[in-house]
Amino acid sequence: MRWIIRLAVLAVIVVAAGLWLTRPQSDAPDVLAGLTPDPVHGETVFAAAGCASCHMAPEAEDDAKLVLAGGQSFPSPFGTFKAPNISTDPEAGIGDWAAIDLWNALHHGTSPEGQHYYPVLPYGAYIHMEPQDVVDLHAYMQTLPADPTPSQAHEVAFPYNLRAGVGAWKMLFHDEEWVMDGDLSPELVRGRMLVEGMGHCAECHTPRNALGGLETGAAWLSGAPNPAGRGSFPDLTPPEMSWSEDELVEYFTSGFTPEFDTAGGHMALVVENLATLPEDDRAAIAAYIKALPISE
Description:
mainly alpha, 4 strands, Cyt_c-like_dom_sf, heme, metal ion binding, iron, heme binding
């Protein structure tokens, strides 16, 4: 009987230690202290991060895309996730969030209530954003319209509905390491921020392991199946990606490929966002892609 009690106590200790190690992380407001918000730059961050593409209402058009009412579905092997309302409505959306709340969501994947967000919010990429970027993004988002549409619940079954497990996932896959590293030119540094960070390109274009973590190394941006089960996302590495830098910049600007095809599906929304960025940013993304190693 004493051995049973000891094993039970040990099990409780192990579980408690695991929960403590995988608890949601957050930063205090002083991480953003002294920063002056620039909503004009925040609009650029908003476009580069593709916020409206995921959080606009389904089938929204034109200015309605800036009403971030949520509701789009994102099927995956782990369940179907629903984009939440992130409009300025203080009850249905995030209108009462301070900049530090947005920082903790994007940097740590932690809600203001201290819960893990599922990594369908690509904080694995957004962790690279600078504090100034987030402060500016918050300032711009405060200028957007409010909408009272309630967020829809995710359709996620056991065991993936246990958010405590997300903490273990973060321990394995959530860090600030860059994939492209070394002595990079200023253009490649900016391209890396836009591709690996704000633009979260790898979320679609990189294959995942059985736990949903992104593969790095030779598999980085080498193409991946669509998690919704329809088709796949293309390989961006050479020799598969043979477009020149100028051709890539043209694609990011107009959506036209060198073969006179046009961007479709979700990529059309990505191009729509990229076209609003400064041309230097589109050139930096192209330079990053052309600097990728040959996939094996």
